Known about the structure:
By secondary structure, the protein is α/β, with parallel strands linked by helices. The protein folds into three domains: 5-74, no CATH class; 84-112, no CATH class; 115-270, Cobalamin adenosyltransferase-like (Hypothetical Protein Ta1238, Chain: A, Up-down Bundle), CATH 1.20.1200.
Amino acid sequence: MSVALYITENWLAENASLTPGGEVHLPASSRLTPAARDVLNDRNMRIRYTDDVGRVFVDAVEADNEHREPRQQVHPLTSSATHESAHCLLCQQVVGKKPEALTHLNATTMVVKSDARIAFRGRVDSAIAHAVLLQTEWLTTSAPATAQRMLADIRAALGNVLRSETLGEPMPAIAMGEFDEAQLHALSHDPLKYLGHDHIVPAIEHGLTVARLNLLRTVIREAEVAGAHAFIDKDFSISRGDILQALNRLSSAVYVLMLISWTHEKSGRNS
Length: 271
């Protein structure tokens, strides 16, 4: 019988991105200490447990005893334990077999694949892919641990964007490391004052890390533009201003991380 891994506050700090409103994935055999659960609850984080074959579980009920916590298996992509029938947004009829021209807008509604919201989700999906690729590359390099945690926060926030839009939930505040939204805005607008280096226009002399981060930044900006098409109507009414602002702050966060990475690399060259 496998021995349970107890997840503590220290374990979370060292192994998880604790972005408020985000999601944390833990081994299926693990148990949270009360203090660790408080950390996640205070940040309004969703807890998912994954076993060796990729099955995903959630806590079925609250349990504060020392016995095994009841868990419920859910779909690994939707995190839902049930299957709901979907209907066409145009004709309102239940869709028995999904045609190639339609796709899910949510669990119960299907739209044409050219819908602006679907295009938006595709852009966010691309941004997540770029962030994960960069995270993977940094695992094999000497990227500072602080920078790796900041990148993990960006990845987590992009996931929050996708979840928030898909489920119609409010977008959690953006943070990267110790910087909140207001600080990220200030850092990105006056980096010389706060970071000791003025604005940069990415060029070959800045190296691969800055180039990769800049690519991520541009993909996030493309997602923001796609969001503008999806959430701003012809009368300039904005339906998801929280998401548009989040993406704007995320592109600023990546730019700040570019500057931090560049100044760190320069200091290493000069030491």
